[in-house]
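Data card: per-record layout.
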Amino acid sequence: MSDQVIQQGGTVKHDHADEARQAARGGLVSMVGAGTSAVMGFVLTLVLARSFGTAGSGVVLQAIAVFSIALGIARTGMDTAGIWILPRLALSDVSKIRGAVTALLVPTAGVGIVMALLLVGVLPQLGLSGEGNEGEVLTALSDVTWFLPFAAIMMVALTATRGLGNVVPYTVVGAIALPMSRPVAVLLVVAVGGPAVWAALAWAMPLPLAMIAALWALWMRLRRHERRGGVKGSWLPDRGVFTRIWKFALPRWFSSGIEQSIVWFDVILVGAIAGAGVAGVYGAASRFVSAGLIISTAMRMVISPRFSALLSENKTRAVQELYSTTVTWIVLLGAPIYGLFMFFAPTALGWLGKGFQSGALALIILCVGAITSLLAGNVDSVLMMSGRSGWMAANKSVVLAINIVGNVVLVPVWGIVGAAATWAFSLLLDAAMASIETRIFIGIRFDAKRVFYALFVAAVCVVPASVLAIVLLGNTTVSCLVAGVMTVMLLVLWCSIDRKRLRMNDLALLSRRGKTTTANATAVV
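The structure for this 525-residue chain is written out next.
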């Protein structure tokens, strides 16, 4: 259905508003999950830093970094393929969903097992001495590698539930239960006096239970769709669906590993060049960045399947409005977090213990890069859900190449500041390429007026409050809290006064169920 058809009866405005409202309502659940995940990620970093110091936490973070890159490959692109294909099947042919789930999960399980075996076989050949920090990293990684298939299956199953219209399992299992269990598991290691290597193993141990929960949630969601459609599908994939999935997943498989490499490669390289202690400082600083991604992550959980459904019906105007509205929220609510970290970088890193404050400048640079990424919102999701996973793979390849070269050149000279600068530039380049491509291929434009206004509002709220707090109280934890409270108060006041321009009326629906327009074919709930 094209936008021209939607315009009959004057329903375009209502359709756009309904999309924003459904994104807002679903965003509440995702926001809680993303917030919990970010907080627990910080708690984990804090526990590691306080318990094992810069070197010990560096060992664990390097093991997590390699595991995360391997997981990006083990998912075979099927996590994103599920987000893309399942909303379309829910609209067109429910009987094919069960077979599509088979096509998503079986390759993931197989590749996950192969990846684990390869890593276990290859790691001893890396030439690490088995003594000191290098040997600890090798041992920690060897231990956690066996959990790779569980993590891969869990991720694909959880994203499949999102594709079938329910973000709750993904949020509860992947963003709340799993992140909360990890600091607890590490604290148990600390309680018995275990080394950092044991902490890495404790980080991975909750994965099998999380996988079981994810598969159960997917099965329940699958059966619900089949009962609604009055059909019972076959576990054998339809040939056409199988082909579509693999055509989409192959380039995404490639880009997924690259994406994780962009996120984690600098931690590994810093550790290889400067040692585990410096990697611990940089890894800890980079984990602060995840705090500002709460809104972006929450929105992505909700709107990616909706982008797929809307684009399958050629509703580009609805996609444009949904994208512009959500990117406004992302910048408005995410940028102040980074602003506070920039002003209070030494204080924030000081929470982790002795030696971590040396990463203050790196944290500031990382926050600048993260803000530039927020300005593009979830543009990657738009490009991916349009079926252009090949372009995504090309983008990530370019970014990773620049990331590697930048780290190799700058880390020996500038240390973690060079790594941070490289990462920040990589984010800017990635967002710029995706934005240009969505404009050319799909007709979705970067709404500069709305985005930069949201950034202006965020800056006005955070900068004066932070400067005043530092002048009066110094750069301390107390002044950080005061600045945070002042920022929130100013932001709430501005949003209440200018709620129409900032689309706060739609965001307010996070707290209540609104009326939806009748036969909205794009709603898969």
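Known properties of this structure: The two ends are 20 Å apart (CA to CA). Confidence is low (pLDDT under 50) at residues 1-16, 127-131, 508-525.

See the next section for split statistics.
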